[in-house]
Design brief:
Peroxisomal Thiolase, Chain A, domain 1; multifunctional enzyme; 2 domains; Beta-ketoacyl-[acyl-carrier-protein] synthase III; globular; five-stranded mixed β-sheet; four-stranded mixed β-sheet; binds coenzyme A
């Protein structure tokens, strides 16, 4: 049986680093609160004129710099919550930039669950035979949507892009099971769609920036992380003790620690990059995976668990034999 597999991954982050001292200078906050309540020390911020297309293309070039040939890509999937255009899609722009003729390109948004939703969707495309070589590109410019006056959210988010090459293999390794759920909820909102269209005079208004009830979101994230992990393990006939490495969404270190404790994994077996990059939505899991691979923390044959949770709400997991 053909299973989907992450064959390679690369990333790009903008040059500008925002540290916690910067937030001390603009908000009633301090480094100690931010580090102890979130785990975040720095995050990246794109240039004003830097688009998600440019960031995404840089991640793609970094993938090519690893020797990856993208000429036989037949599918491009971009799960992003921060679009450059309503259309054309970001995936279509990347298809054009790569000069790919026989390819289909699709954007969708599942907020911070984007990486897992895309990985699971691509798994289904590969298992069905529809797709063979898939480029999954995550690119987010969340700093354009930050309410810089809200200390509860401004400190959390950063910009980044990741490019993952996903193909099929038949040697038993790859995705074993997946789980996805969502539930309409307005605890995290970003206006600007047809329900609440943005007008020129609203551009800097708080209603058109990221709004989040942090406490409620935190509780829900811990609960649904755990529920999703239970379901994906049950689908694969595995138990918590079989999981060898955990790559979670990077929203808050306390959420990650609570879930790792429940799984029974020591933190050395959990990838954490939010200290450097904050929460960069769909790119967070890719950044965390890339970091774990660069540090040789994941071994061939390890059962790796990916879990995401995002606004919407959305949540999901993927279980993969590396
Ligand atoms: N600096 C200092 N104090 C801050 C602060 C900051 N940056 N942000 C919030 N506070 C204050 C609040 O105003 C509140 O003060 P009060 O008690 O006087 O009202 C107090 O800290 C506690 O606020 P609360 O929101 O309960 O803090 P928290 O411990 O829940 O941490 C988050 C806030 C946002 C960091 C946390 O809730 C979180 O990470 N939420 C989940 C994020 C998530 O899962 N996202 C996934 C999808 S994106």
């Amino acid at each position: 049986m053909k299973r989907a597999y992450i064959k390679n991954i690369a990333y790009y982050v903008p040059e500008k680093i925002l540290d916690n001292k910067y937030f001390e200078s603009i908000l009633d906050t301090n480094n100690e609160w931010i580090v102890t309540r979130t785990g975040i020390e720095t995050r990246r911020m794109a240039r004003e004129d830097e688009t998600i297309f440019e960031m995404g293309l840089n991640a793609v070039k970094n993938l090519q710099n690893k020797g990856v040939d993208l000429s036989d890509i037949d599918t491009i999937i971009v799960p992003t919550v921060t679009k450059d255009y309503i259309f054309p899609s970001m995936a279509g722009q990347i298809q054009k930039a790569l000069g790919l003729k026989h390819c289909f390109a699709l954007d969708f948004s599942a907020a911070c669950s984007g990486y897992v939703y895309a990985l699971n969707t691509i798994t289904a495309l590969i298992e069905s035979g529809q797709s063979k070589n898939v480029l999954m590109l995550c690119s987010e410019k969340l700093t354009k949507d930050i309410n810089w006056k809200d200390r509860g959210t401004a400190i959390l988010f950063g910009d980044a892009a990741t490019a993952s090459l996903i193909t099929g293999r038949e040697d038993g390794r790859g995705v074993l099971a997946m789980d996805m759920q969502s539930e309409p909820d307005l605890t995290i909102v970003l206006n600007g769609g047809s329900a609440c269209p943005i007008r020129a005079e609203d551009c800097d208004g708080a209603d058109f920036k990221i709004y989040m009830e942090g406490g409620e979101t935190f509780k829900r994230a811990v609960t649904e992380f755990s529920n999703s992990i239970d379901r994906v393990l049950a689908k694969a006939g595995k138990s918590l003790s079989d999981v060898k490495f955990f790559v979670p969404h990077q929203a808050n270190l306390r959420i990650i620690q609570a879930v790792a404790k429940r799984i029974g994994l020591p933190m050395e077996k959990v990838s954490v990059t939010l200290n450097k990059f904050g929460n960069s939505s769909s790119t967070s899991i890719g950044l965390a995976l890339n970091d774990a691979l660069e540090k040789n923390k994941i071994k061939d044959g390890d059962l790796v668990l990916f879990t995401g949770f995002g606004g919407g709400f959305t949540w999901g997991s993927t279980l993969m034999i590396w």
